[in-house]
Amino acid sequence: MGADTIIGIDLGTSTTEAAVIRDGKPVMIVNLDGQVITPSAAGVDKSGQLVFGEKAKAQYLLAPEDTVIEAKRKIGTKEKLRMGNKDYTPVEISSMLLKYVKDYVSESLGENISRAVISVPAYFDDLQRQETVEAGKRAGFEVERIINEPTAAALSYGIGHMEEESHILVYDLGGGTFDVTLLEMFGGVVEVKASSGDNRLGGKDFDECLIQWLVSQFRKKHGKDLSKDAAAMVKLKEQAEWCKKELSSRESCQIVIPFIAEKSGTPLALEETVTLELFEEMTRDLVERTHAPIDVVLADSGVLAKDIDRILLVGGSTRMPMVRRDIEAYLQKEPSKAVNPDYAVAEGAAIQAGIIEGTLSREEGIIMTDVNPYTLGIRVLCEDRSHYMSIVIPRNVTIPVVRKGIYYTSADNQTSAKIEVYQGEHDDVRLNHFLGEFVISGIPMRPEGEERIEVEFSYNLNGMLEVSARIPSSGEEASVEINMMAYEEEFFTEAATDVSKWKESSLAKEFRTVVRRAERRLKSETVQNMPFYREDLESCLYDLKLALIEEDEDRAAELEEDILDLLEERE
d(Cα 430, Cα 533) in Å, to the nearest integer? Predict the structure, then answer.
């Protein structure tokens, strides 16, 4: 193994793993605690030192304010994570975890490792992918490739089944995200046919159901609300996770937390018996939320459930018996145990790393294709609709891909055009995710519709996008590489103003109703599962509150209209 070694990293919500190719096979790498699985936790200890993995997870129980867990769920958001009296972005926390991986891998392999393939959920959008790459760079890695987690899991399976011809469904339910991907294997080629998922569904949501039930039981028995007590909630979280795991192999378990709270000076204990039947009943809705993405993948790929040859279960949450039972009942096929749910993604990332570095030759090895998980397009004027999304690359197209759209000027003597790029599944761009924009100038002055504009999208294997535009009659060209990190920083700067005092504005009364409606909508469970829509509504609401503080009535009226449009869209 030389200085060109590339490792594979599964950067998960709950745990992180790394692997490397040795003698043509992926091998898991042990961390500084001698373990293969590293909890995705970071913290600052009493002496001010950074701690990671098991140490940080253990510390979370005693000092939650000095510890961050589940940072991956916040990637791509503007949320700050507090650790030891300081705020960090999800990228900063993720980069610390990756730096820890870099250190333990370098020590374990006896060489300085600086190249990596990092996995992400297939359903991560462009911003989440860019931020994962950025976290890797800040940790000191050259990120050779971003690979989708289900694709990595399929590679882990495929390397031992080269001659197989089959349709494989990868069902990946991790700590924080859910992905489902359909692949076809033939003659050493793994071809992704379609991906879908839910970035806000994972094992943590099952824990949360149990936590809320425990809080409710305690309130009934003792008349005290534990949700207001941060230390009590940390204990509940730990016990809920333990209980969930116990119920994977037992019919019931008892949760006992002595001295969890006090009332009128008397210490109170929490004691509850949770049966498997009760746990499955309270989390049934979560399991059923996996069905819609499965349906999307089957429809997009044109493969019938009966034509699936193998179902691979990936992610620790698939160890829950009801998950296995549910998928078997839904697809009428028993899931396979051919891959290790905890290791498959890291192993697959290492296989991709081996292909890149040449340790696994493409001839003897495996060839992989992937797809883009979201529709990509631009905003155009269409039948008097100024927010219409014109699709350039549909979702689930094999990548790398280059696609072109032909457009025409929309006004007489138009000399320039703004190209706004969006990602998402709605025909109204305002409900999709804005990626970036640029202007192409130098269009010859001619009547409306007589000048052609060619827009080209180039999407690569890392899921990164380049958009260019060209005017054939004049040869003028312009382009943009979608750098979501720059977009994010710009938003942070803009969002630095505290808008909580909007009620003190002289305009507050006039706009109070729309603010309240938007705030109520943002709290709804439906919106929590629609990241693009939620971000747009949050952004408009923030801008409205800012306009109220600045006493800008015209701007506030415009934003009120935008918010009402968004609210009506989801009525």
Answer: 8
